[in-house]
Amino acid sequence: MTDAGTAVLEARDVTKRFAGVTALSGVNFVLRPGESMALMGENGAGKSTLIKVLTGVYQPDEGDLLLAGSKATFARPLDAQKAGVSTIYQEVNLVPLMSVAQNIYLGREPRGRLGLIDFRRMYAEARALLSEYGIQVDVRRPLRTLALGVQQMVALARAVSINANVVIMDEPTSSLEAREVETLFRVIGLLRERGIAIIYVSHRMDEIYRVCETVTVLRDGHVVHVGRLDDLPRVELVSKMLGRSVEKVERGGVTAFRAANESDAPPVLVATDLSRKHQIDGISISIRPGEVVGLGGLLGSGRSETLKGLSGVMQLDRGGVKIDGKSVRSGSVPAAIRAGIVMLPEDRKSEGIVPNLSVRDNIVLAALPKLSKAGFTSRRKQDAVVDVFIKRLHIKVSSPDQIVSELSGGNQQKVMIARWLAMTPKVLLLDEPTRGIDVGAKAEVQSLIDELAHEGLAIVLVSSEVEEVVEGSARVIVLRDGSIETELRGDQVDENALLAALAGGSAS
Amino acid sequence: MTTTFEPAAGPATDSQVGRERLASLLQSYGAAIVLVILLIVGSIAFPTFATGSNFSNILTQSSFLLIVGAGMTFVILTGGIDLSVGSVFALGGVLAAYGSSFGLLGALLFPLVVCGAIGALQGFLIAHAGMAPFIVTLAGLLGVRGLVLATTDGGSATPLITDPVVVALGQGQVLGIHWPVLIAIVVIVLGSVLLARTRGGQSVYAVGGSESASTLMGLPVARVKFTVYVLSGLCAGLAGALNAAYSSSGVPTVGVGLELNAISAVVIGGTLLVGGRGNLVGTVAGVLLLSVIQNLINQVGSLSSSVQAVVSGAFLAIVVIIQTVLSRTQRL
């Protein structure tokens, strides 16, 4: 079906910039009727920007979108919908308080005499529409009373019933049960038979290979690969997404890690069977003092969620964490911190630093209870702590009173690390510690991680940079779709092995 | 606690569904039920309560708040708030009095055009400039009150209505029912049809239910928000004009705190303050409930009007608590 007819949707040299940062750069793709195209890329590759351009949320700065051969401009989401481009999102984007039928027909309800809505016809049409996809449901029920899978189907029914030629699906299965996923795939098949083209975004390799015919890979805002999926091995797809060549991988000298940080002391942290519905499933990890354990995995594999489970940020359905053999109350950040587990979150800006406070205040924030008596803080004790860390971590500041948002990204990151070190932790969880900081600062943060491990801290390192995980870690635990895929130890820890493990399935 | 994280996955059990349905009914009709109970209790306790003239009096007194509350219901359904209605109500009255020198048309058109324009200005700032409804309409509350004072010599002048046709609009009766009550009924019926049976009305619910979803579904979110503030301004202006006709004068000091009564009535009527759910029938019940409570306190006689405020306040607090409990039961 792929070669049948002309393109239903085409992007020509689409470029989008935000405040000087280029999010999309000369993106081209061609989508034919009935084609299902996977759109792949890691964090920051430009996927979401591209989707927003296609759906009229953003307008491209340069380049054109062509619908059935003629130029199209979408000033707002409604324009894209009217032109036949519909989207269903990861989070169901409907109105939960309103009925199934109302949600399907919002904005285009069938009207009878006097322009009043004809509810009887609306219900009948909604019922007929849903039963086409094999979904039997009382269409008068409020949407929120239905299971998420059914809600997703309602969203899909709405999208398709607006005479869509193209349906964009953004992580449609992330909250669905296995059975619901099957229904979705069946519906996708039906849609393609009718000549509707699909753009499918997902991190789940198995799904991509099942549902999609072709793939477009984005990296740093550029299209780095276009082609059919059936002659593209998984490991190659992953290496294209991450920008690493499979054949030629050089080891050493890329990062500032001096040695693989191993240890054979008894484990300080033992986590067993960490599970949370739709996010992680049965993850067990143990870490020794002085050891750096890498957590590998693609976006959406459960890396960050595992750290959140360990640090008490995320409630667990099952499983628990022990420190030195003692159980830590799960789902409680204070309990985790008391036990000695601290986490440096991925998003430093929104989850970490308090931008308008001084370096001093940011460092002592978490340790304040330790540094105060009867609710009064001791400035002298604070200053002593702050002084030690500024020196030890080489934080470049004019004075401890400097506002933290004036510092460079690398120094902000060090302030964050200092905050947690002031708590004298046993386990340090680092989620993307070097993202968004310059090369020099990166090296400093990396050697700091080395040093801390050397001093006996147990460290879990999550990074989407392959070489950082490979060179910094003694062991790499590879996650895929929320479970442990494999663990690489000693000599196994190299980039080829990691890429193969990330891709899963038919590797090497 | 985990239920707060988990969506209503899978079909709920029968008892769960039953409980949710009951909670939903209570939310929608609770005010009406309490109203009926109060009417029965009042009729038994006070011989002067259940009389035609007293009921007619309650209705007439309620009609102005009914009209203001109708506009407020639209605003609250979108998740917004309109604090300016009390001041706009007073402005509507003063303008109606000035306009009455041009007859009935002047007495109605003048306030409606100006008050609609004030609503439009507020709606523009909220819908298109993205400002917070609370702040914009608070500015409206203060600014419009200033406008009222400016047009009445600092509040000392009270323009009178002498045109008999205009006075009849306030005081005249059809079948023993005052015109303002009839007009309020028309407003409520029209508003109900608009909400329940038109695309515009459905988008009001959708915007209040989930603004981001409405945007992504291609609904004209800004236009919907703009329109509800225009409607609210028109309703407040109309109510003010009718009130002026009823009292034959545009008193510049009326309507102070009216916005709070209107919001209370809407919320007591079961409309969610966060938007997306509620209707005008509930608002009618809410308004009548407030009026009946006031009337009953007057019946007791020995209680001062300040007690009435305490009772209304306590009542509102209880209603909000019950609503919260009901919302949780329904896992909204």
TrEMBL record, chain A:
What lineage, starting at the top, does this entry show? Bacteria, Bacillati, Actinomycetota, Actinomycetes, Micrococcales
What PROSITE patterns does its record include?
A: ABC_TRANSPORTER_1, ABC_TRANSPORTER_2
Question: What Pfam families does this protein map onto?
Answer: ABC_tran
Origin: domain of life: Bacteria
Q: Which GO terms describe its molecular function?
A: ATP binding; ATP hydrolysis activity
Recorded GO CC terms: plasma membrane
The cellular location(s) given in this protein's UniProt record come to: Cell membrane
Q: What is its main location?
A: membrane
What species is given as this protein's source?
Answer: Subtercola boreus
Q: Which InterPro entries match?
A: AAA+_ATPase, ABC_carbohydrate_import_ATPase, ABC_transporter-like_ATP-bd, ABC_transporter-like_CS, P-loop_NTPase
How does this chain sit within the bilayer? Peripheral membrane protein
Protein's name in the database: Sugar ABC transporter ATP-binding protein
* Domain ABC transporter intervals: 9-245, 257-506
Keywords from the named record? ATP-binding, Cell membrane, Membrane, Nucleotide-binding, Repeat, Translocase, Transport
- Gene3D superfamilies xref list: P-loop containing nucleotide triphosphate hydrolases
From TrEMBL, chain B:
The record describes its membrane topology as:
Multi-pass membrane protein
**Transmembrane region(s):** 29-50, 62-81, 87-112, 124-144, 177-196, 226-246, 252-273, 280-297, 309-326
GO cellular component terms, alphabetically, are:
plasma membrane
Q: Which keywords describe this protein according to UniProt?
A: Cell membrane, Membrane, Transmembrane, Transmembrane helix
Give the primary localization class. membrane
Q: Name one GO molecular function term.
A: transmembrane transporter activity
Q: Name one Pfam family in it.
A: BPD_transp_2
Q: Where's it found, cell-wise?
A: Cell membrane
PANTHER family xref list: ABC TRANSPORTER PERMEASE PROTEIN YPHD-RELATED-RELATED, INNER MEMBRANE ABC TRANSPORTER PERMEASE PROTEIN YJFF
Protein name from the UniProt record? ATPase
Q: Which lineage do the record's taxonomy fields give for this organism?
A: Bacteria, Bacillati, Actinomycetota, Actinomycetes, Micrococcales
